[in-house]
Hints:
By secondary structure, chain A is an all-alpha fold. Chain A has 8 helices and no strands. In chain A, helix 5 packs antiparallel against helix 6 (122-149). The relative contact order of chain A is 0.15. Chain B has a single domain, classed as P-loop containing nucleotide triphosphate hydrolases (Rossmann fold). In chain B, helix 4 (82-92) packs across helix 5 (99-108) and helix 5 (99-108) packs across helix 6 (124-137). Classes of the chains: A mainly alpha, B alpha/beta.
Amino acid sequence: MLRWIVWRDLLVAWRRRADALSTLFFFVIVVSLFPLGVGPESELLRSIAPGVVWVAALLASMLSLGRLFANDYQDGTLEQLLLTPQPLYLVVLGKVGAQWLTSELPLVCIAPLLGIQFGLSNETLVILVVGLILGTPVLSLIGSIGAALTLGLRGSSVLISILVLPLYIPVLIFGAGAVEANIIGQPAVSHLYLLGAMTVLSIIFAPWATAAALRISIE
Amino acid sequence: MRGDRRIFSDVDFSLAPGECLQVTGANGSGKTSLLRILCGLLTPAEGQVTWQGANIHSLGEEYSTQITYFGHRPGVKDELTAGENLSVSAGLNGIDIDLNTARQALEKMGLSGRDTLPARMLSEGQRRRVSLARLLICNTKLWLLDEVLTSLDKAAISLVRSLIEEHLSGGGLAVVATHQDLQLTSGQPRRLELAT
């Protein structure tokens, strides 16, 4: 039954490609503005690259979070999802998984290209991508809690940012930290382990919190 | 209770297999709230809803397999075609149907040839028909239908009536919130009037 929800959301996302593409272009443009603004000093660019890519990824993921439950809420399908004979935990996991595939995975794929603009080495690019693969699911999962809590409220997109961005800080620190460590020649593995731990923890707990928030929002 | 306001109190009824309850009352008297309480989306401030003797909140997903809820908003995704909408919603309820079965159900609902159209091309009444096609496919015991006859034409209304009758004669239960007369041939349904 999980496959039905993932398939449904992927199909909807495919028919509304502009949404996912706008998230991707936002990410590309924000990251590309920095080399233009800062100038071609390769040393400076290399040192700000991890922070810039990660902050842009956080902001880009905010764009797609507003849509995560809002559309389903408006057309009444969310009520039907809540009434399906399966744990709401799985429904949320399916929806977040589909959101990750459509909105976060493209960012991960394009990130190495953007890293080249900052003069990152191949090895550093690999660390960047691994960090993003481990970290972006946490963004989707934690973000889903905010999206569920602000469902149906006016100005919810701003509210989501205020609620969720502070919670992204650990991911930002360790995600950007892994890349920085690699740039200055230290092992990045401990940062990645911590990111992995965060992913596992948020897979376990976040859908549960989101499910509870959804039940409250739909009342 | 919605906020601080008491909407209704002392609502007490039970339904036996084959029985239909029509909930009536003025706008804002709490028909929708009552139906949402019955399907478990809302928790009543006081009292409880039981299904075969057990509280619906302790039954959880087991109760969800027994009910079909039809709400104000039809629950049809604009981006998907009518057929996809139906097969996805059946799949989510644990019934795997192919697009052929979905087409047949939609034909029964008077939507022949519309199954490959995106739902956003359909009219309000046609969307409600797509949503109602779930009743043909989901084999549930209890139907909770909120304002089910709204924006349906005469043919669709009589179709819904015959669906409800068929469901009741098969031992099903239905709670229908509507202002209109249901006019079931099997006799008048029980009525519950909510006072404001």
